Amino acid sequence: MRVWQDDRLARVALSRIVEPGDPRLLASISSIGPVETLQQLADSHPDLAELQAETQARSGGLEPERILAIAARQGIRFVTPADDEWPHQLADLEQPRVQGRGGVPVGLWVRGPQRLDTLAGSVAVVGARTATGYGASVAGDIAAQVAGAGRPVVSGAAFGIDQAAHRGALGSDGSTVAVLACGADRIYPEAHRDLIEHLATRHAVVSEAPPGWSPMRMRFLSRNRLIAALTSGTVVVEAALRSGALNTANWAHQLNRPVMGVPGPVTSAQSQGVHQLVRVGAAGLVTTGPEVLEMVAESGQHLLEVPRGPETTRDRLDPVDRQVLDAVPVSRAVPSVSIARTAGIGPGTTDAVLVRLQEAGLVRSDGHGWRLAGLALP
Amino acid sequence: MRVWQDDRLARVALSRIVEPGDPRLLASISSIGPVETLQQLADSHPDLAELQAETQARSGGLEPERILAIAARQGIRFVTPADDEWPHQLADLEQPRVQGRGGVPVGLWVRGPQRLDTLAGSVAVVGARTATGYGASVAGDIAAQVAGAGRPVVSGAAFGIDQAAHRGALGSDGSTVAVLACGADRIYPEAHRDLIEHLATRHAVVSEAPPGWSPMRMRFLSRNRLIAALTSGTVVVEAALRSGALNTANWAHQLNRPVMGVPGPVTSAQSQGVHQLVRVGAAGLVTTGPEVLEMVAESGQHLLEVPRGPETTRDRLDPVDRQVLDAVPVSRAVPSVSIARTAGIGPGTTDAVLVRLQEAGLVRSDGHGWRLAGLALP
């Protein structure tokens, strides 16, 4: 049996032996390091007996240097905590567990020029594969505004919201990264070949699973924790009640990252999961990119003005004129003396104000009395 | 000058002299009662000098008995705190002030058979006059569910959400009440004559303004506080950023009543005001009538189950079968031995499980390997 001495090579071997997000492995690495963990697996150490039994079939004849060389020929590098580009925000994964998965990944396989340390401050935009046109459009807009503001977008590579998010970010010349459940060399779904290859050429596709590994449900669940942990906040654009995007939201919540939900029609099943997140307080509500930027900003950055409707003619009136206007009936005309009483303003002043308001087109007179010119109601 | 001794008649007189929601009048009534307040107005008492100057023109020759008699011929009664049917929840208006208005109303003019004390536990459903078809439909559904559960609906009488709310409540044979900014004898808007007359015949139309008074902006603002105060919670279905419905929501918030916002497409201007309320925490998000009932319920009533998506075939699998299923690739088929490794389950067991899963239609074999039968992803 080979003796493992190199931290990086030990991590390559472990990445090929154990499923992504296996908390037994990751706890052991965090406690005794990858070299010792690998040695304990080889020695059938009692602490790792269960894992050893399950992974035995994969453990023989590993040649990490060769694995790295083959990956390199595919344009894939293996990034570990010892590398400059390691995204240190992943340390937050040390403790949280969701559905039996968790832990800091043993390493990340990356295809593409973008360094992973650029993902500090990035934003996850995730949601339903079966998105509506509405959801895809809003996801694209939000991703464009986030990426356009200099924060990378992170998503999966699925149909629907994932795709719309990448397209939106690319359309704003921003950066966008896909985290995959399969190996970084694999294309899934096949229909997204062009998109995934483009991301791998200009930005990055990332996976905890080694090259060649297939996508399967348990790997999607482990992958979701990376999307949540790599980013400074997760936006869920559309999600039905059982959507996998809610799993990503759950991870972000466990990691104390802001979870943001984009509302939609209450009649849309694709928005039900999002509405439920907001209802129970697990997500804040956002409707635009700037609102997302405000939620993920350090305090004092990206402060939003409270949105207001357009200023109306009424807003520009002085207080006495406004008081008279508010006492003019919306329907049947009444004499100015009655308006004066209602407004609590003298009849002479009221008459003068009514003439001004008439010139501004706000009230009209029928000779006997005054009423509002339009439907300028509160 | 007449000497006022009767509390009810003094309130009738004050209702005819002072604008609805004038906090100076209502504070005085709350402090020294209506008889003494009316006397101070007649005596030009310094405490009420400003109000006296403004209301002088309306103060002469009032005959409250005659006013009540004329109202009675119109089917309108005057309800005061001394009456059995007085809605005591209005006492919460004692302190709050919004936009210079506030206070417990001097009395309420009511047309229709429904007693005001039935409004304990009622729910306000309000929103944009220029509602979308979506908003009107959702408002009608929510009002129908609320009224169908035995809680009266309260709204205005405007186009859009108000109308849809009344129609929804009527459609479920529930009770629904309109609070008007004009006198309870007046019809505004004219297009809602049939609706308002129907409410006055079967339920009630209510106003703080005496019969004959016109609708105008300041009276809508005062009216909004009554809608908020009469009810156990306010649902805002659609509201643009400057909508009057936000004023009602603001009143409900000041009165510590639950404020509930129904989300809509973020691309709809009619939902912007609602989204803003939810975003800043001034409203909770609701999507259905049962959710509204849960929000306004005494604790322990109307508890909702957490909504879940439909149970899937996967949910019904036993844990080992599910573990194998989660390790089956979604795309390219792989041998069962590889699935066994990924799942961490022995090859014999895995083979048996795969056959069962195939019979259930969840996986398929191409002779050399296995993959998922459909897109049964997380």
From TrEMBL, chains A, B:
It comes from the Bacteria. GO terms for biological process: DNA-mediated transformation. Residues 78-295 form the Smf/DprA SLOG domain. It holds the Pfam family DNA_processg_A. NCBIfam families: dprA (TIGR00732). Belongs to the DprA/Smf family. PANTHER family: PROTEIN SMF. This is DNA processing protein.
